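Interim report to the steering committee. The following record documents the input for DUF2145 domain-containing protein (266 residues).
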Amino acid sequence: MTTFFSVCRRLRTAAAFALVLALPAAAHAGQACEAREPSESAIRNELDMAVKTVDKLNASGAELVMIGRVGQDLSKYGQRYSHLAYAYRDGDNWFVVHKLNECGTAVSNIYEQGLGQFFMDDPFQLEAYVAIPRPGIQKKLREAIRREQATAMHEPHYNMLAYPWATRYQQSNQWVNETLAHALEPQIISREQAQAWLKFKGYEPDVLKLGPMTRLGGRMFKANIAFDDHPNDKRFADRIETTTADSVFAFLQKAGLEDSHFVIRP
């Protein structure tokens, strides 16, 4: 399996965040790449959100957090946050490490970005949920997302609705969850082992109720959606289990892995 860890331009100040506009839109979390000119007000709001997030993260005293954004409107599925990432502190700067789908294709990679780029992925709404793991867990996670370690649990075959207990595909939130397992139990060296640990610790994926036409349309017309890794009894009952950001946040609390959490809005 061939993977890579792409390091994007590191941004330090609100003025430097504007440099992101000159960079190509390399990937989006489960979205197709569309050439759209962002408005000045949208850019300003996204940069303000990034600066506010840095301030809140600094005030928290954390060195590493899990951060979720409202990239898509998932309210009809009972979900709030669509995309999950790790954010870590390096000196005075914060960087995001996450898995991104390559513009609506069935391929993904692991990226490191500045917080400015994290909020400039055409979000449905500017809002972030920050979960702060316990201090000892932060340290282990920081080691697990170092460049040489970040792809340990990565599967490049992307499926936005990947089944949490299979390894044929992987979506962005699933990589975060399996990397958590790998970080906390170093003897875990495979995705199967990571999933077994998550199941043992009580992780419960969310169930999305999709109608048959929704399933059919997604499989026929979108390269980054597949259902063939789901058990037939659940798939044909239109009960699609997948790893949501909301379910991972709930697991952190239930398993006692979280120290605190807060929401950031403009």
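The chain has one domain: 5-264. The committee is asked to note this result when reviewing the revised timeline.
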